[in-house]
Amino acid sequence: MKRAAPILAAACALWIGAADAAEVTVIGTPIDLDFGGAHRTTVGALTYRGGLKLAGNSAAFGGLSALRVSKDGTHVLAITDRAAWFQMDLLYDAAGMLVGVEHGDLTPMLDVDGKALVPPRSDAESLALLRGAALVGFEREHRVLRFALDANGRPTAARPVIEPTPPAVARAPTNQGLEAMTTLADGRVLAISEGYLDDGAMLGWILATGDRPAETVHYVAAPGFNPTDATTLANGDVLVLERRFTIFDRAARIVRLRAADIRDGARLIGEEIARLLPPMQVDNFEGIDAVAAPEGGTRVFVLSDDNFGALQRTLLLQFWMP
């Protein structure tokens, strides 16, 4: 765990690759869970362990739509919906509260032809890590690309390859494709659409691996909510992040799926463990990850996507779950 004395903000310089040669400064400002002050420290089964409002000085920063946190909680790999990799290190105080960021970078993803991804092929929304590879799910032109990772789990400059997906994936509505992905305990990948409805639920798949064919699942979200990301816990259970986000109404909830329930043909209905509602810090939450906590239990991180807009924020919140 990286440690630092409590601070009001931490800045990091971010680079968008040699082709763009643009430096972006991002400030991580600590925030309370509740707009009304530090009196609220829990929500559902979660205990708040610090959060940051991230702000950059360039239009190149923002749109963070999924994240993966290193096992020791010190490094973030995220993707943006303009097809870029965003990486940074996290800083904690002596009590383990999240207080800042440092050592970040922002680098364009390459397409299968070795060129930078551009619209409509650039809407990266979901991320799953495998041994030596990262799978990224895209909307608008629905597909999954497999990117090579180096020995430290960082993206390489190699061209990606197209990952096989069920034909139904390509038929998803334009902006309602593969929004949530996570690598399951058996090494396969669970992928859930944001709003591709079938039989009153969101279509999802357990993607094919080796000689095992793809399987279909249906995910039941709460009324008015849509799944936006997922992460797998140490025991194989899965946390799913759901979001309700309109100009008048903002909320998020985290639900738990039992590992034994995630199988071919399943209708997945999670157990809610936390619901974020105003006056808590609520924005367009699209990323979730979980890693083991040093003191036992699990650290849960949630991330919001500002859609590169002035009326939304990029928030990174840390919670502890027993």
Give a verbal description of the structure.
Helices cover 1% and strands 51% of the residues. It has one helix spanning 17-20, and strands at 10-15, 23-31, 42-43, 46-56, 64-69, 75-80, 84-92, 98-108, 124-130, 133-138, 143-148, 161-163, 178-183, 189-198, 201-206, 215-219, 226-232, 238-245, 250-257, 267-268, 271-276, 285-292, 298-304, 314-321. The strands form five sheets. Strands 1, 2, 3, 4, 22, 23 and 24 form a seven-stranded antiparallel beta sheet that branches. Strand 13 (178-183) and strand 14 form a beta hairpin. The longest helix is centred in the first third of the chain and has 4 residues, at 17-20. Residues 2-10 and 12-19 have low confidence and may be disordered.
In CATH, what is the class? Mainly Beta
The second-level CATH architecture is 5 Propeller
Shape: globular
Secondary-structure element string: EHEEEEEEEEEEEEEEEEEEEEEEE
Give the strand content. over 45%
Domains counted in the coordinates: how many? 1
CATH topology heading? Tachylectin-2, Chain A
Number of alpha- plus pi-helical segments: 1
Helix content: under 10%
Question: How do you describe this structure in short?
Answer:
The protein has one domain: Tachylectin-2, Chain A (5 Propeller), CATH 2.115.10. It is 1% helix and 51% strand.
Give me some keywords for this one.
disordered N terminus; 322 residues; Tachylectin-2, Chain A; seven-stranded antiparallel sheet; 1 helix; globular
